[in-house]
Design brief:
- With 297 residues, the chain is mostly beta strands.
- It folds into two domains: 47-118, Sandwich (Immunoglobulin-like), CATH 2.60.40; 137-296, Jelly Rolls (Sandwich), CATH 2.60.120.
- The protein has helices spanning 2-27, 137-140, 244-247; strands at 47-51, 58-63, 70-75, 78-81, 85-89, 94-103, 109-118, 144-145, 154-159, 162-167, 173-183, 189-197, 203-211, 225-230, 240-243, 262-263, 269-281, 287-296.
- Strand 1 (47-51) and strand 2 (58-63) form a beta hairpin.
- The model is unreliable at 1-37 (pLDDT under 50).
- Keywords: Signal.
- Residues 1-27 form the signal peptide.
Length: 297
């Protein structure tokens, strides 16, 4: 008798499993690549852009809500994740593409793009550097070569979007570029730039200065070192790519005991942003810079 009961239970179990299998199969798409059947193709990526009252160069981005579960934004080069409403501050004059990616059920995404046109730099935090990204001849002309090297073994070259320092030879060759900046007494400023090299340098330095001393052709510049990279200080020995404030390790001479890209000055007037590099065993592809910043904190 017990054997018969067990046999019947086995039959019932097989029938139940077969039924479950048919249910699972029925949920699968008929054709590969059609998704899981739960995607909503109508997710709405539309959004609005509204200037924020009382705030310079500040904009509120608001996603539509129809079938939208999450939002992803790209404003210029900056990316923001997971906010249906986003307030962005754009301190610098220019035209910024805003790309909104709306996410719906099943992970379905749709995108929409608009532009924000910023008419003028923010008076407090706008970038004071001219030709910040070396995009063309007009940008590149904002920078002056300090002519520290006379043997041709260290030089800065400009290409669309970048300035590159190359150094060769067995001696400590170096070269610098600079430009004039107007500052306000006791106001704090931050200096930064994107730096990159496809390989490290065994013995080198890359230094940024913001000094009152007027640069003189052929004379080394040493007034108020702010930040940089240096094999002696322990950075730049391997390939790098990022903000100098993040990848650099050279201490700020004004603080002496810490790495900081913040500067301020005891009187208003002109200072000189000087970018200098050199070494004995320099990366063969050079160090590139772009997006140089000198702005109010």
């Amino acid at each position: 008798m017990s054997l018969n009961i067990i046999f019947k239970k086995s039959i019932y179990l097989m029938v139940a499993m077969a039924a479950l299998g048919s249910i699972i199969v029925s949920c699968e798409p008929d054709t590969a690549g059609e998704g899981n059947g739960l995607e909503n193709a109508n997710v709405d990526p539309s959004f609005t852009i509204t200037p924020v009252a009382g705030k310079n160069n500040t904009y509120l981005l608001v996603s539509g809500t129809k079938d939208v579960l999450n939002s992803y934004w790209k404003v210029g080069k900056a990316e923001f994740y997971g906010k249906m409403e986003l307030e962005v501050f754009l301190p610098d004059k220019g035209t910024y593409a805003v790309i909104h990616t709306a996410v719906g059920s099943g992970g379905k995404t749709n995108t929409a793009t608009k532009e924000i046109i910023v008419a003028a730099n923010d008076p407090d935090r706008g970038n004071l550097v001219k030709g910040t990204s070396f995009l063309n001849a007009a940008d590149q002309a904002q920078w002056t070569n300090l002519h520290l090297n006379t043997n041709g073994l260290a030089s800065w070259t400009f290409t669309p979007g970048f300035a590159t320092i190359n150094v060769s030879g067995d001696t400590s060759n170096q070269e610098a570029i600079y430009q004039e900046i107007d500052v306000v007494k006791d106001k704090e400023y931050i200096i930064d730039m994107v730096v990159s090299a496809t390989s490290g340098s065994a013995d080198f330095w890359f230094e940024v200065y913001a000094g009152k001393t007027v640069p003189t052709s052929g004379v080394d510049y040493t007034d108020n070192k702010v930040m940089g990279l240096s094999s002696e200080d322990g950075c730049g020995k391997e390939a790098f790519d990022g903000k100098l404030s993040a990848v650099g390790c050279v201490k700020n001479s004004a603080t002496d005991d810490q790495v900081s890209n913040v500067v301020k000055f005891t009187e208003s007037g002109k200072v000189y942003l000087v970018i200098k590099s050199g070494g004995n065993k320099f990366t063969p592809t050079g160090i590139k810079i772009t997006e140089v910043e000198f702005r109010g904190k």
